[in-house]
Amino acid sequence: METISWNDFERVELRVGAVLEVVDFPEARKPAYKIRVDFGEFGIRWSSAQITKHYTKEELVGRQIIGVINFPKKQIANFMSEFLVTGFADENGDIVLSSIDKKVPNGSKLV
């Protein structure tokens, strides 16, 4: 494992946002949703997320998630992803979202 400096870590913009909308993404190679998230002062952004095994669209709306907002945009099929949704693979390789246990202001940075 490569070590990084504190300055390297500080450059990663891991921010909290609230999910506003979730829609199916049938064009994706693996089952995924398109999600629209409010990152407070950093704006509303879209991303795709392969989280269909553990989450329904309905339960995601209103939930706060953690995203990396300073990666460049990435084309996924016919869709432009504007941030990276963070999570962990379970024993089957299905993604479980990284999350917070208490509500914080949208846009808050992981420290």
UniProtKB/TrEMBL annotation:
PROSITE patterns reported in the protein's UniProt record: TRBD
Limits of the TRNA-binding domain: 8-111
Cross-referenced CDD domains: tRNA_bind_CsaA
Gene3D superfamilies (alphabetical): Nucleic acid-binding proteins (2.40.50.140)
Keyword vocabulary terms for this entry: RNA-binding, tRNA-binding
PANTHER family (UniProt xref): TRNA-AMINOACYLATION COFACTOR ARC1 FAMILY MEMBER, TRNA-BINDING DOMAIN-CONTAINING PROTEIN
Protein name: tRNA-binding protein
Organism: Mucilaginibacter panaciglaebae
